[in-house]
C-alpha cells in the first residue's frame, strides 16, 4: 500500500462505521468448507447492497469447533450478505501457517483482508506485503497493541489489558482471596494480557495455570489437580466459555467450594450464569467484531470510510454479564449471535 495514501498519514475527521443488528446471512467460501452460519428465522433482512461484488478474506487463529469463533464468523457472514461480499474464511492456530493463509489471499488478489494478530511477530511481514499490494487490511479480536505498528487500517475488539483489570476489580468486589487464571495457549498475547490485567488490579493472589487448550480432558484433569493441591483457591478464572464449562466439571470433581468466572460467552455459559455455576462473564461481542471487520472493508472500498481515524481502536468490550442482566443476552445467545 502506498503510505502516502494510508489514512493515518492524513489528518481528517474519522468516520465511524455503522453497525447493523443481525442480518440475513448467506453462505461463504472457506478452506474448511463453507457453511450457512444462521438459520433464516434467526435474522432480519436489511436488503443487499447494489455495489460491485468484492472478495474479502477473513483469516483467524481460531481452532476448529470453538463456539466463540463460530459467533465471529456469523457476524462476518451477516455483513457479507448485506454488502454483496464474497467471504473467504480460513483459520490456523499456528502463527506461520496463519501467515501462509494471508499470503494465499494476497496471491488471489482479494479486495480486503480481516486478520487476527495472536502471534504478531509471525504476521508482520505478510501484513506488510498485503499493504504493499494495495490490499486494505483490518484487524480484529486480537492484536490491539500491534495493529497500528503493523499499519492496519482499523481494529475492532476489546483491550484485553483493560478487560483483565476490570475482571480483577470484580474479584475484589466479590471478596475473592486467591484465583487461578487458566491460560489455554501459552504465549498468545490476548490471553496473557487478560491474566496480567487480573493480576494488576486483584488484591488477592493470582496464579497462572497453563493448560493444553487442544485437549479438553487434559484441561479438566489439570484444573482438578490444581484445586486439590491448593484448597485456598476460591475463584477459578477461565478465558473462554468452553473452558468455563469444563472448569465447572473440574470444580465439582475436585470437591472444592471455589467459584468460577470467565471471559467470553456462549449459549451454555449463559445457562450456567443463570444457574449460578458461573458468577459472571466478560462479553466482548464477537458477533460485532466479525460484522464490523467485513462491513468496514466494504465501507472503505465503496465510500472511503474508516473507523477511528487510523489512530484509535473501535472497542466492542468489555461488558459484564451476570444474573442481573443475563436474561437480556439469553435470547440472542440462543440464536448463536451472543
UniProtKB/TrEMBL annotation:
GO terms for molecular function: carbohydrate binding. The keyword Cell cycle does not apply. Residues 29-45 have a biased composition (Polar residues). It comes from Streptomyces olivochromogenes. PROSITE patterns: PROKAR_LIPOPROTEIN (PS51257). Residues 57-300 form the Periplasmic binding protein domain. The lineage of its organism: Bacteria, Bacillati, Actinomycetota, Actinomycetes, Kitasatosporales. Its main location: other. This is Sugar ABC transporter substrate-binding protein. Keywords: Signal. Residues 1-37 form the signal peptide. CDD domains: PBP1_ABC_sugar_binding-like (cd06312). GO terms for cellular component: outer membrane-bounded periplasmic space. Residues 29-49 are annotated as: Disordered. InterPro entries: Bact_Solute-Bind_Prot2, Peripla_BP_I, SBP_2_dom. It comes from the Bacteria. Belongs to the bacterial solute-binding protein 2 family. It is found in: Cell envelope.
Amino acid at each position: 500500500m502506498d503510505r502516502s495514501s494510508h489514512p493515518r498519514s492524513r489528518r481528517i475527521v474519522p468516520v465511524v462505521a455503522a453497525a447493523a443488528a443481525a442480518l440475513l446471512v448467506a453462505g461463504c467460501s472457506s478452506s474448511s468448507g463453507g457453511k450457512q452460519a444462521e438459520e433464516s428465522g434467526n435474522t432480519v433482512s436489511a436488503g443487499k447492497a447494489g455495489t460491485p461484488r468484492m472478495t474479502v478474506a477473513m483469516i483467524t487463529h481460531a481452532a476448529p469447533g470453538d463456539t466463540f469463533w463460530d459467533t465471529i464468523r456469523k457476524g462476518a457472514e451477516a455483513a457479507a450478505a448485506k454488502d454483496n461480499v464474497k467471504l473467504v474464511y480460513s483459520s490456523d492456530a499456528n502463527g506461520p501457517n496463519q501467515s501462509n493463509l494471508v499470503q494465499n489471499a494476497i496471491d488471489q488478489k482479494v479486495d480486503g483482508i480481516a486478520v487476527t494478530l495472536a502471534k504478531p511477530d509471525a504476521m508482520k511481514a505478510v501484513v506488510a506485503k498485503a499493504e504493499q499490494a494495495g490490499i486494505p487490511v483490518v484487524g480484529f479480536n486480537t492484536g490491539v497493541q500491534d495493529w497500528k505498528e503493523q499499519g492496519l487500517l482499523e481494529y475492532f475488539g476489546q483491550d484485553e489489558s483493560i478487560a483483565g483489570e476490570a475482571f480483577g476489580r470484580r474479584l475484589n468486589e466479590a471478596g475473592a482471596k486467591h484465583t487461578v487464571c487458566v491460560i489455554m495457549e501459552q504465549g498468545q498475547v490476548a490471553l496473557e494480557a487478560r491474566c496480567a490485567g487480573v493480576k494488576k488490579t486483584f488484591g488477592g493472589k493470582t496464579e497462572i495455570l497453563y493448560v493444553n487448550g487442544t485437549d479438553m480432558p487434559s484441561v479438566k484433569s489439570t484444573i482438578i489437580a490444581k484445586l486439590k493441591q491448593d484448597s485456598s483457591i476460591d475463584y477459578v478464572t477461565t478465558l473462554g466459555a468452553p473452558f468455563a464449562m469444563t472448569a465447572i466439571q473440574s470444580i465439582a470433581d475436585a470437591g472444592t467450594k471455589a467459584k468460577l468466572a470467565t471471559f467470553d460467552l456462549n449459549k451454555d455459559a449463559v445457562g450456567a450464569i443463570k444457574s449460578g455455576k458461573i458468577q459472571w462473564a466478560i462479553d466482548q461481542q464477537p458477533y460485532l467484531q466479525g460484522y464490523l471487520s467485513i462491513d468496514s472493508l466494504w465501507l472503505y472500498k465503496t465510500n472511503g470510510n474508516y473507523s477511528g481515524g487510523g489512530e484509535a481502536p473501535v472497542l466492542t468490550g468489555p461488558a459484564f454479564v451476570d444474573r442481573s442482566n443475563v436474561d437480556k443476552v439469553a435470547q440472542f445467545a440462543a440464536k448463536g449471535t451472543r
